[in-house]
Amino acid sequence: MEHSPVTTNPLIIMMINMTVVFIVLISLIYLIKLIHFLDPTKKPAKPQVTDEEEPLVAVKSEPAPAPPPVIEEGIKPEVIASISAAITAYGFAGQVKAVRIVNHEGTAWRASAKFNTLQRK
Predict the structure, then answer these.
(1) CA distances from residue 57 to 60, 61, 64 in whole angstroms, order as listed
(2) Residue ranges of the domains in the chain?
(3) Averaged in consecutive runs of 10 residues, what is the pLDDT profile of the chain (121 residues)?
(4) CA 98 to CA 76: how far, in whole Å?
């Protein structure tokens, strides 16, 4: 006995496959909703207590004054201005609070740079 396909029309095969896929997806949606409904680890909802005697009023507080920027001695104002311009050009919309010189003499980056420079010569 020889088996032959029911149909060879690709559109009908596509419709059957898409129907099966969507039925499975819809059943998964309802299974997930059922799991969320029956979740034993979910904390019980607390009843909301409303005080109708005292209305809620939004109070706007004054913002704290910004501290003055910390500028170390020995850094030129032109350097600070160029760093601030570079940070602003990068997309930071805030204010630069402090600029400090960091000593990179003993770091691994400095050692790697020295090694790579010596290797090229």
Answers:
(1) 10, 12, 21
(2) 70-120
(3) 77 94 97 87 71 62 76 73 80 69 68 73 52
(4) 13
